[in-house]
Amino acid sequence: MKVKDAMHKGVDWVNPDTPITEIAKLMREHDIGCIPIGEDDKLIGMVTDRDIVCKGLAGNGFDAGRAQARDVMTEGIHCCREDDDLAKAVHHMETLQVRRLPVINKSKRLVGMISLGDISHSTSGDLLAGCVKSVAAHH
């Protein structure tokens, strides 16, 4: 199975100046846990619900009314290609200990997101179990 057969299609990204409050509303509205961050037509990072809490709200002097994506985002981006085998993407997630990966096409354009939930609906229990064990390990 290919990543494109399991992923969520049509993912949008926001720029690093986007207010955290707007990002949180997008997460709630779309029932998602992360938002890719892009600048100059290039993905540069990711904001997860955990980033907002741990790097933002739990930090000293954090002002949620003024905070932007750049203040809490995890910089750098790891992704997979839509034509990758799903097992390869799962292995990549295990290695990185991440629950989600952006998916790009041959033109390096964001076309979707693959998550543990997507994998759970699309693959064998053995592949999923290994991924969950690695991703859920304390790090």
UniProtKB/TrEMBL annotation:
Domain of life of the native organism: Bacteria
Keywords recorded for this protein, A-Z: CBS domain
Pfam families (UniProt xref): CBS
Domain CBS residues, every copy: 7-64, 73-130
InterPro entries: CBS_dom, CBS_dom_sf, Diverse_CBS-Domain
PROSITE patterns xrefs: CBS
SUPFAM superfamilies listed in its UniProt record: CBS-domain pair
Coiled coil (UniProt feature): none
Protein name in UniProt: Inosine-5-monophosphate dehydrogenase
